Amino acid sequence: MDPETEFLSSKRQTGNEWELFKENVRPLKRGRNVDLLNHALKARTNDQLKKSLLENRRRLIEAIDEYQGDDPLQPWLDCIKWVQEAFPPGGDFSGLVLIYEQCVRAFWHSDHYKDDLRYLKVWLEYAEHCSDAEVIYCFLDANDIGKTHSAYYIAYALHMESKSKMKAANDILNLGISSNAQPIEKLRDAYKKFLARSMRRPNATEEELKEDDLPVRSFGTVLARGESQRQAIKTFELGRNKLKQDQVHRTPLSIYNDTNMDVTRGHHSKPNTGSNSWHTLGGRAERNKENNAMPAKWTSHKIPQRPVPRIVGAVASAQIEVFVDEECEEKPKVHDEKDRTSSLQLRELDGRNIKKETELLRENPLRNFPSNSLPR
Amino acid sequence: MASRTVAKDIITLRGSAAIVSEFFGYAANSILYNRGVYPEESFAKVKKYGLPMLLTQDEGVKSFITNLTAQLSEWLEAGKLQRVVMVIMSKATNEVLERWNFSIETDSDVFEKGVSREKSDREIMREIQAIMRQIASSITYLPCLDEPCVFDVLAYTDMDVAVPFTWIESDPKLIANPQMVKLHSFDTKIHKVDTLVSYKNDEWDEQ
């Protein structure tokens, strides 16, 4: 009996937590295991389950350190996959970005994994979580990682496209094709789609010439990842909008700054500077300036600082003590030399630190890399 | 306090077959839309089951589905249809990526004794609505189909059914080691339809 017939005749049901809590689930390109998903969603309100999740995470992290075989990447992948499934909303508290970062940093100099598709995919997923992934693609380029795979060129080109750098995207795809990246058909197909999209673009040439591109006004459709390619411009209620909502928070919002005159470069209408502009609505650029301006230093106005007495040595009492259930308390472990560079770091972090570190990595994904590895 | 009885409607065999085959037509369209098998622009919105449903405007796909639902209706009326499966395959490799499995249980009494049943139309519509919502929400767990795909429809019928002209015998096009999710069912009291979606485990080392 095939598995589906078997499932149907067994009258087994699939839990419907996935549907009830779908707003809290970040869709994964790779798809999810629904039983794990339902379990993870139940765990949010069930301490027993939550404990078993934390226990699992601990085991997987240990497995990374204890691995003896000749494919040390594998336990990392198991851990990443599990974290993705067990923390459905993803987000800054899941520690996912930290794991990506530690994984890629563990193997970046290893020849063994330079052409490994799985290793490349970890990099690409890491890139998807960063506010500006270009530095990652440059790094991969400079260090010759993943360049035999179509996925690298496709992701890189999509990223450039999302920044309206069409010529760069074009060049990247062409480079991939001429390098015979595999699978070549997928790359050719992606190129065809890219060309079709660039035909549909208005002001294509104008945007290429601009040196510093003004961020295109959008609400999540800027990130032209594979998934969001299918984002509907006209939005239908059922299902489609979730990917969009999730991607918005990754690109930082640009903050309006009146003193930055660059706002109007490239736009047709001139701003009414200085004069009393209440009589005219102002051009579209001026009306839209909050969404279009590049942030700059606030130099024009100083706020006097209220003198605050510095408390030295009393830091401990100023911190909020986090209550830890007895059952959940982590037993202090004896750390040895190895731990400096190992993934055990993950275990020591609590929710606050994970979020902080994640934010830092999002902004500067290569911050922990030795400076001699970074591209010029 | 007066108790409210839900008004029931009479469901005939023909009526039930129409409901189920119509459901299948809309479900097929919804799957093609939500899974991105055809571009969004090729769909138009209509109201059905109290929801905005999307129907393809592509003539080829439209007529395929129309012929399909007509045939399904015929089989349903004869009580010969056991299952309908919509298979989504990679265009490049023909590998089966996803299967939407609608399994049908037919009340044999209806055939033997020619009875009709009673159930509120609204309730059936609500049940179907729940399934449609789930289909649309399935992107929560389904892998992203980021390559061009094609679809096919398999029908499992009783052994004594002659293969119609436009159909061919086929292998079951199964997925090896699939992930499976059972969705809601609906029941007209004559035909009960269970829905299951199965999909490939997408692995790290797949292109």
UniProtKB/TrEMBL annotation, chain A:
Annotated localization:
Chromosome, Centromere, Kinetochore; Nucleus
Mark out the compositionally biased spans (Basic and acidic residues).
330-365
According to the record, the residues making up region (Disordered) are: 258-281, 329-376
| GO molecular function (one) | protein kinase activity
Q: Which GO terms describe its biological process?
A: meiotic sister chromatid cohesion, centromeric; mitotic spindle assembly checkpoint signaling
Major location category of this protein: nucleus
Key words of the record: Cell cycle, Centromere, Chromosome, Kinetochore, Nucleus
Write down any Gene Ontology CC term. Answer: nucleus
Q: Has the keyword Cell cycle been applied to this entry?
A: yes
Segments forming domain BUB1 N-terminal: 60-219
| Name this polypeptide is given | BUB1 N-terminal domain-containing protein
From TrEMBL, chain B:
Q: Which InterPro entries does this UniProt record tie to the protein?
A: HORMA_dom, HORMA_dom_sf, Mad2-like
Gene Ontology CC terms, in alphabetical order: cytoplasm; kinetochore; nucleoplasm
Official protein name in the record = Mitotic spindle checkpoint protein MAD2
* Entry-linked Gene3D superfamilies: HORMA domain (3.30.900.10)
Which Pfam family, giving just one, matches this sequence? HORMA
Q: Where in the cell is it found?
A: Nucleus
Predominantly, its location class is: nucleus
Give the record's keywords alphabetically: Cell cycle, Cell division, Mitosis, Nucleus
Role played: Required for the execution of the mitotic checkpoint which monitors the process of kinetochore-spindle attachment and delays the onset of anaphase when this process is not complete. It inhibits the activity of the anaphase promoting complex by sequestering CDC20 until all chromosomes are aligned at the metaphase plate.
Q: Where is the signal peptide?
A: none
Q: Is the Ribonucleoprotein keyword given for this protein? A: no
Residue ranges of every copy of the HORMA domain listed in the record: 14-197
GO annotation, biological process: cell division; mitotic spindle assembly checkpoint signaling
